[in-house]
Amino acid sequence: MQHLIVVWNASPYIFGGSCVTVGIVVLALALGLMLGVPLALAQVYGGVLARRCAGLYVWFFRGVPILVQLFLFYFGLFSSLDLPINAFFSSCIVLGLTSAAYQSQIFRGAILSLPSGQFKAGRALGMSDACSVRCIILPQALRLSLPGWANEFSILLKDSAICFVLGTQEIMARTHFVASRTHEHLALFMLAGLLYFLITLAGLTLLRRLENALSTPGYAAGGTGAQ
């Protein structure tokens, strides 16, 4: 009975962390999208220097643990530059930069899965390379990337739990705060796990609906589809 009373009293406070968690994930996904697309284009269509720079970026952010990056940026880079960036936005930036590395590989794979003839057809119609990429390649690649993007959403949501080490008031930080004072760790962390599960379910459901809304009947990667 004591467990239920503690969970009931702490629920509004912990539920408030859900908004912070969702905000971190949404902003990180948006930043990852804005940086991931140019990185993917640089790796596919860029020159030698562009491909090497993009590859170095991907190598760094995929190779360094997120916990190290959080400390490196928040306590290191942002502090040394005297940038007034709080824990919340630091979490968004770090997760967004990391997500950009992974999203770039999702978009890169989607671009490479498209028939090369479409790019040549754009040139034959008098389009510039930039126009062909913008009007022909990217719309198809982004649509094909939605399943991988949904997977990136669930990964970012789980990674956001690490941000409590900076004091970001998301689900884990608030749950840890209450559990350390009430010593009801099992019940409270079960509640936190349930919240993460529900947010994941809601997010993936929305992305699945978006994927279905944007799907083209009879079209698949590689130019093949139902006959």
Helix count, per DSSP? Answer: 9
Quaternary organization = single chain
Ranges where pLDDT stays below 50 over 5 or more residues in a row are 221-227
The total of beta strands comes to 0
**Broad CATH class:** Mainly Alpha
Give the termini distance in whole angstroms. Answer: 62 Å
Largest sheet: none
Shape: elongated
Write down the Rg.
21 Å
Helix content bin: over 70%
What order do the SSEs take from the amino end to the carboxyl end, as H and E?
HHHHHHHHH
Structural class given helices, strands, pairing? mainly alpha
Number of domains: 1
Task: Kindly report the average pLDDT value.
Answer: 86
Describe the structure.
- The chain has about 230 residues and is mostly helical.
- The chain has 9 helices and no strands.
- It has helices spanning about 1-45, 50-65, 65-80, 85-115, 115-125, 130-145, 145-160, 170-180, 185-215.
Main attributes?
single chain, 227 residues, mainly alpha, MetI-like fold, 9 helices, 81% helix, elongated, disordered C terminus
Short note summarizing the structure:
The protein is an all-alpha fold. The protein contains nine helices and no strands. 81% of the residues lie in helices and 0% in strands.
